[in-house]
Amino acid sequence: MSDARIPLPFHEAAPAALEDGQLRRNLAHVTHAIRAKRADATAELPDWEALRQAGKAIKDHTLRNLGTYLRRLETRVEAAGGHVHWARDADEANRIVRRLVAAEGVREVVKVKSMTTDEIDLNGALAEDGVVAIETDLAELIVQLAEEPPSHILVPAIHKNRAEIRRLFLDAFDLTPDQLSDDPAALAGAARRFLRERFLEARVAISGANFAVAETGTTCIVESEGNGRMCTTLPETLITVLGIEKVVPTWRDLEVFLQTLPRSSTAERMNPYTSFWTGVHGGDGPRHFHLVLLDGGRSATLADDVGRATLRCIRCSACLNVCPIYERVGGHAYGSTYPGPIGAILTPQLRGEPRDGELPYASTLCGACYDVCPVAIDIPSILVDLRRRTVDARRAAHPLPAADAVDAALRGAAAAFATPRRYEAAQRLARLGQAPWVRKGVLRNLPGPLAGWSDARDLRAIPRRAFRDWWRDREAARERGGDPA
Ligand code: SF4
Hints:
Elements: H1 10-18, H2 21-43, H3 48-64, H4 66-79, E1 83-87, H5 90-104, E2 108-112, H6 115-119, H7 122-127, E3 132-135, H8 138-145, H9 162-172, H10 184-201, E4 204-207, E5 211-213, E6 218-223, H11 227-233, E7 237-243, E8 247-248, H12 251-265, E9 273-277, E10 288-294, H13 298-302, H14 318-322, H15 324-329, H16 340-350, H17 368-372, H18 379-397, H19 405-417, H20 420-433, E11 438-439, E12 442-443, H21 451-456, E13 459-460, H22 467-479
Parallel strand pairs: 1-10, 2-3, 2-4, 4-7, 5-8, 7-10
Antiparallel strand pairs: 5-6, 6-9, 11-12, 12-13
Helix pairs in contact: 2-12, 3-12, 9-10, 16-18
Bound molecules: iron/sulfur cluster.
């Protein structure tokens, strides 16, 4: 992954996001609404849990035999008149797409359903050749006009309200204020008029895909607006960039995900548009079809016993909508294409930059993400494992415990908690030591490295009488036959 557009690490980006009250209101409004609808949509199906386990089993089987199914996909796509390209990483994928676009001699392409192309920053790479990529998904278009990255997998403009979107459209579409209200239908209409012109002029389209069916070489996108269908049918050349984990063996397997994905993501029984394309067909659809299969760190993730389950993800975004951290800081704080709980485990494995080591800490480990995941990814366990790796790496860099403040503090805590006697002694010491920093029963402005804790939290002071002391006195009083209070 070459996404370096947001250089701030999470611990700096998150406090800034928390300061933005409008952002928090927008996020809370949308995540709560989708969350409630998803719960209703999944509760309607008596076999939801069986579908969830079926999705998990299909993905695990496919991942164990990934080479077989990818080769089958390649054979079928080429038999149907398409071309398959293999890309080891973002640079190679971008080089391939740039070459294909340059061969068509165009200066503008239309794009849809393209998280994978966002992951490799394809728009930036095309811009180096003077090619403008127009996002055609409405929410993607909004964040593109705002010159921001998406902040949600499904609702990339979740952080923007109607008034903000109207201001963007007035500027971008050259409209006067009386020509556009902030009514959702008016905003959608303005975007539609702009996009239709682009669709009719475009000779090259670039798409992502939700799935690819190996048995027939068919690629599939599910979407809500119909813009994806425009992209995949109108232009002469279609280039699809697909992460290698998106392949499924058969149509029968796909049937499971076409039930679980819409209900998990938009809380719909069936999504409005499901488009399939298999190679090329004379007189119908694109005349040239290229499928770029991207590794981009997926093979290394596949080789990892714990992390492998991450590749089951079907990008439904349900885990984002229930995550208390995502709800408060939004997607930009994660500094990656994939935010929220899935981003916290996927980004460190795919991208592996030093700043990604703190993403697995962006979680309360409450487990809500695991409960809603339609392919039963045990996100909390993977988060804990990734945290362990971060600690191991830090210990390797600082072999002496005293050289690492966190390590030294945790070792001290482990020693104090090891026996009741030590715990009580530590508690007595802390009770004496806390006095200079206690105000009205709360510890404030702790010194040194402890300041990081008290800056962001109200930490109650250790009480004068500990529960254990109270309990001992109570039992002693009871034995004496006195008042236990
Ligand atoms: S991890 Fe699960 S819940 Fe989250 S986006 Fe992926 S499939 Fe959906």
